TrEMBL record:
This is Squalene monooxygenase. GO terms for biological process: sterol biosynthetic process. It comes from Pisum sativum. GO terms for molecular function: flavin adenine dinucleotide binding; squalene monooxygenase activity. Gene3D superfamilies: FAD/NAD(P)-binding domain. InterPro entries: FAD/NAD-bd_sf (IPR036188), Squalene_epoxidase (IPR013698), Squalene_monox (IPR040125). It is found in: Membrane. It is a multi-pass membrane protein. It catalyses: squalene + reduced [NADPH--hemoprotein reductase] + O2 = (S)-2,3-epoxysqualene + oxidized [NADPH--hemoprotein reductase] + H2O + H(+). Pfam families: SE.
């Protein structure tokens, strides 16, 4: 059996590496192919829910979140219409320390893969079973089908510095107008902000439209404790965006099991 992983992964994320580890412990013969071992530069998959951490425990991989400045997450704070409340994960019945953690197809039969190493040398490997775990931007998926994907919104990401969340060790969801805003720590000094922008076409970053949108529409709804750092992050201009089918999928993932 060969195991193939094409997409970039982080130390704590990826169905591919977890599957490879599990199959390896079961005595399977594996060949793991990774496209890139460098830290991925993206604005999602930075928060591992307790259910995900429990799976790490079950696999014996809990040390994956050690020594990477991972932040323990105990629940979420919700903001709407000037009111807020804190909702903690129901972790009382668990013996282990299981809070969440946040941190900085083909026509016919697939018989194997062709790939290149760093020096450009080409290799061909064949196997009875090929498993591809290359994420939502899979090139393979696009080559074998043409799914009709609607994009009603985009994620816009910023990193806030020199501030503290109102509720320590909690994600923060602002049920804003016209769409939600999310804050969570990704290190001991940084807070990720994700803004859902409900449009098929994003305001331009280059001509200042995005900065104006963030300052005039989003900033007034940001908790006062984060406002100054939010504006500073916008002025810094390091604004990232990502297509999303819906922001609700992120909110739905905020469950324990």
């Amino acid at each position: 059996m060969w195991f193939v992983q094409e997409g970039p992964s982080t130390k704590t994320e990826g169905a591919g590496v977890a599957l490879a580890y599990t199959l390896g412990k079961d005595g399977r013969r594996l060949h793991v192919i990774e496209r890139d071992l460098s830290e991925p530069d993206r604005i999602v998959s930075e928060l591992l829910q307790p259910s995900g951490y429990i799976k790490l425990l079950e696999l014996g991989l809990e040390d994956c979140v050690d020594e990477i400045d991972a932040q323990r997450i105990f629940g979420y704070a919700l903001y709407e219409d000037g009111k807020n409340t804190k909702l903690s994960y129901p972790l009382e019945n668990f013996d282990s320390d299981v809070p969440g953690r946040s941190f900085h197809n083909e026509n016919g039969t697939t018989k194997g893969v062709n790939y290149k190493n760093k020096s450009g040398q080409e290799f061909t490997t064949k196997a009875l079973l090929t498993i591809v775990c290359d994420g939502c931007f899979s090139n393979l998926r696009r080559s074998i089908c043409n799914p009709k994907v609607e994009v009603p919104s985009h994620f816009v990401g910023l990193i806030l510095e020199n501030c503290n969340l109102p509720y320590e060790n909690h994600g923060h969801v602002i049920l804003g107008d016209p769409s939600p805003i999310l804050f969570y720590p990704i290190s001991s000094t940084e807070i990720r902000c994700l803004v859902d922008v409900p449009s098929q076409k994003l305001p331009s970053v280059g001509n200042g439209e995005m900065a104006n949108y963030l300052k005039t529409v989003v900033a007034p709804q940001v908790p006062p404790e984060l406002y100054t750092s939010f504006i500073a992050a916008v002025d810094k201009g390091n604004i990232r965006s990502m297509l999303l089918a819906t922001f609700i999928r992120m909110l739905e993932s905020m469950t324990l099991l």
